[in-house]
């Protein structure tokens, strides 16, 4: 791929048959928006929804959130038409639902032709959880992927778990998929969403846990979730300052021929330098420093 995928903290879903909501989403502070051509619309409005997606991509500007489009599943009668509707330079990624095997990711890669669009396979089935590494390595276009946590949704139906606010029933799912995705070199792991719109305390706890696992962001279903998720998945100014001090200290120690040493009460070495540089690079790409 010729361009680096933009970092995503908050990825907001919007029904593609609601042009008004699509425009509001593009004016929001979400890092990315998903125009949903699959489960969020009725098939009778598919033509209108595709036209809305085309218009939104044509009028998209660089200062607006990145655009993802959830198309119908590979192999369905709507897949080709959905994909054709979103083949535009403004498209950041195609979101693939109901993925069960790497051949579906590979087929999408081929269908994207000469575009720079990325792919985000959705982990919505037991098979997708089990084969997450295969899905993540099926195309170098895969730049976003992670464990889903839907309440009474596709993954819950496939596996049979009972949803709880604590999320213990999906701990293994989210962590297993994250390890697979990281091992595959996918740069932007995104986890599943918090489905209770008005429970912002629950959202906060879930997002904090998701960040602590190692995810870079998460999918969301309501604009009120954007500021909470963006804050949790962003380093603070204090974090950024601390990384810069650590980098400077290690670089100075290297000049003096010192390996591990004490810095601000911690024992640090070259591994900490690499981590600080990685964290600082992400902050820079998010426009935070």
Give a structural overview.
The protein has 289 residues and is of the alpha/beta class. It starts with 9 loop residues before the first strand and ends with a helix. Helix content is 43%, strand content 15%. It is built from twelve helices and ten strands. β1, α1 and β2 form a beta-alpha-beta unit. The chain has an eight-stranded parallel β-sheet.
User: β content, as a range?
Assistant: 5-15%
Note the main sheet.
Answer: 8 strands, parallel
Q: What's the CATH topology name of the largest domain?
A: TIM Barrel
Unreliable spans are: none
Shape verdict: globular
Number of DSSP helices?
A: 12
CATH homologous superfamily label of the largest domain: Phosphoenolpyruvate-binding domains
Quick summary of this structure?
This protein has 289 residues and is of the alpha/beta class. 43% of the residues lie in helices and 15% in strands.
Short key terms for the protein model shown above:
289 residues, 10 strands, single chain, 43% helix, alpha/beta, eight-stranded parallel sheet
Question: How are the elements arranged and paired?
Answer:
Elements: E1 10-15, H1 19-26, E2 32-36, H2 46-59, E3 66-70, H3 79-86, E4 91-96, H4 102-111, E5 118-121, H5 126-130, H6 132-136, E6 144-145, H7 154-159, H8 171-183, E7 188-191, H9 200-213, E8 217-220, H10 226-232, H11 237-255, E9 261-263, E10 266-268, H12 270-285
Parallel strand pairs: 1-2, 1-8, 2-3, 3-4, 4-5, 6-7, 7-8
Antiparallel strand pairs: 9-10
Helix pairs in contact: 2-3, 11-12
């Amino acid at each position: 791929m010729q361009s680096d995928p933009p970092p995503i903290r908050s990825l907001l879903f919007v029904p593609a048959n609601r042009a008004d909501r699509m425009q509001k989403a593009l004016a929001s502070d979400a890092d990315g928006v998903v125009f949903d051509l699959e489960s969020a619309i009725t098939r009778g409005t598919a033509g209108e929804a595709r036209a809305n997606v085309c218009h939104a991509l044509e009028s998209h500007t660089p200062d607006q959130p990145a655009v993802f489009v959830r198309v119908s599943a590979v192999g369905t009668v709507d897949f080709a038409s959905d994909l054709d509707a979103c083949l535009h330079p403004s498209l950041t990624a195609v979101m693939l639902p109901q993925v069960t095997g790497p051949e579906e990711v590979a087929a999408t890669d081929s269908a994207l032709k000469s575009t720079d669009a990325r792919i985000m396979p959705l982990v919505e089935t037991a098979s997708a959880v089990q084969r997450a590494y295969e899905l993540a390595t099926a195309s170098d276009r895969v730049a976003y992927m992670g464990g889903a946590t839907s309440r009474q949704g596709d993954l819950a139906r496939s596996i049979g778990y009972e949803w709880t606010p604590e999320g213990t029933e999906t701990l293994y799912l989210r962590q297993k998929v994250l390890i697979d995705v990281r091992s595959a070199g996918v740069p932007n792991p995104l986890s599943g969403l918090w489905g209770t719109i008005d429970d912002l305390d629950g959202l906060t706890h879930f997002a904090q846990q998701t960040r602590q696992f190692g995810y870079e962001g998460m999918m969301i279903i309501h604009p009120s979730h954007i500021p909470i998720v963006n804050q949790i998945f962003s380093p603070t100014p204090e974090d950024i300052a601390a990384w810069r001090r650590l980098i400077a200290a290690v670089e100075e120690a290297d000049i003096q021929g010192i390996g591990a040493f004490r810095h601000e009460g911690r024992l640090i070495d070259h591994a900490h330098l690499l981590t600080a540089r990685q964290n600082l690079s992400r902050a820079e790409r998010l426009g935070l420093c």
